[in-house]
Design brief:
The protein is of the alpha+beta class and 419 residues long. The protein has ten helices and 16 strands.
Length: 419
């Protein structure tokens, strides 16, 4: 077994040295037409605006291979401590989903969670992914439940996981659209972003003959200027899959290609879509982060100001004016309100199409009225009502006195004339 991993690494490096130069891509000055994609499904997304710039079968349920590990990393980073020490379980190599690409982790070896994430995302090591699942979830089953729950929380509609590494199983699938959603979320985490752009890294081992060097198997890091991650994958069922992030002039694009026939074909699809996104589209700022776009007047005269937490961008074809309309949608409010609290959402429309939705947060605190210090709501009423009663009593009493006087006068006159 030890000899086999040495042979695999050597062959991989030889193949890379032969293939990489032939696949080097350079951006054309412009892309005159929508690119043709050979993969079965694909999507191109502007990471800043979240707008879809290209889609092909983007919601089709497909096996996804090792790009599954993007979600494995998301859960680990959300739930775990990167500096925690993880001990490799005795049965790790006996699991049904631990085969293929491996680091040959040995029972009892100790690694930080950070080291295992590097091994999982750079080398695509399936035993590292399983070790992460054991540590975070207690076992694979619990961890997979966390993966599915997180996918739903992020808004995925086409995804179901059954393992943490992506090896093919009947009910393990996702879509190009959902994988772009996961990548967009993951790349906002600086630790994840740092890991997936790393090309090589030392990986200290307990024994000298075990693999102690990590190599990122995502060749796009070398082939296309601006690429900064994220992950490739391959199984016989999924064929070649890739999720790519590339950043130029502060603008990030995300590409997902599923079921490419060859590694060369998905790299070509990837590069063509990135060229299309960078050369044919541009962004404009629709709203500044933490600058009020709406305000709500509350009872008592208080005003809460609402804003998106981050800048809001709109993506348009170069040379075409897009008319974006921002429509705030505010939740039912109750006091107190804390600055930073989500109080609604900002819907961005382009014509009749809803292109994105971002949260609206409070910019200021609004305290709940203090009952002890505040003037009771009904105090004025209870003061006025007795006065009104008193005035009514006096008025009635005076009217009765006048009536009695008139009656006495009439009686006196009657007696005067009839006596």
């Amino acid at each position: 077994m030890k000899r086999s991993w040495v042979i695999l690494i050597v062959l991989s490096l030889l193949m890379f040295n032969q293939v990489a130069p032939a696949l080097a891509f350079s951006s054309s000055s412009s892309v005159s037409q929508i690119p043709t994609v050979n993969g079965e499904a694909a999507v191109l997304v502007d990471a800043d605006s979240g707008q879809i710039l290209f889609a092909k079968n983007s919601h089709e349920h497909l096996p996804i291979a090792s790009i599954t590990k993007i979600m494995t990393a998301i859960v680990a980073l959300d739930k775990g401590n990167l500096d925690s020490v993880v001990t490799i379980q005795p049965d790790i190599m006996d699991r049904k989903n631990v085969y293929g690409t491996l680091l040959y982790l040995e029972p009892g070896e100790k690694f930080t969670l950070r080291q295992l994430l590097y091994g999982m995302l750079l080398n695509s090591a399936n035993d590292a992914a399983m070790a992460v699942a054991d540590y975070i979830g207690g076992n694979e089953t619990n961890f997979v439940q966390m993966m599915n729950a997180t996918a739903q929380q992020l808004g995925a509609t086409d995804t179901h996981f059954t393992n943490p590494d992506g090896l093919s199983e009947p009910n393990h699938y996702s879509s190009a659209s959902d994988m772009a959603l996961f990548a967009r979320y993951a790349m906002q985490n600086p630790v994840f972003a740092e890991i997936v752009q790393t090309k090589t890294m030392d990986f200290p081992r307990s024994k000298p003959k075990l693999p102690n060097k990590l190599y990122n198997i995502d060749h796009m890091l070398w082939l296309y200027s601006g690429v900064d991650g994220v992950k490739t994958g391959y199984t016989a069922e999924a064929r070649n899959t890739i999720v790519t992030s590339a950043t130029r002039n502060g603008r990030r694009l995300l590409v997902v290609v599923l079921r490419g026939d060859t590694a060369k074909s998905i790299y070509a699809d990837d590069a063509n879509l990135l060229d299309y996104g960078f050369n044919d589209f541009t962004n404009q700022v629709l709203a500044q982060g933490r600058v009020a776009v709406d305000s709500v007047h509350l009872a008592g005269g208080s005003v809460v100001k609402l804003a998106p937490p981050q800048p809001v961008y709109g993506t348009s074809p170069i040379g075409k004016q897009s008319d974006f309309v921002l429509k705030p949608q505010v939740d039912k409010l109750s006091l107190p309100i804390q600055a930073g609290e989500t109080l609604g959402k900002l819907n961005i429309w382009e014509g009749t199409t809803l292109v994105q939705t971002v949260p609206l947060i409070a910019l200021n605190n609004i305290a709940k009225p203090n009952v002890l210090n505040a003037k009771p709501i009904g105090s004025t009423v209870w003061f006025v009502l007795p006065l009104m009663g008193l005035f009514a009593y006096v008025a009635v009493h005076r009217r009765q006195r006048r009536l009695r006087r008139r009656t006495v006068q009439r009686n006196s006159l009657y007696r005067y004339y009839h006596d």
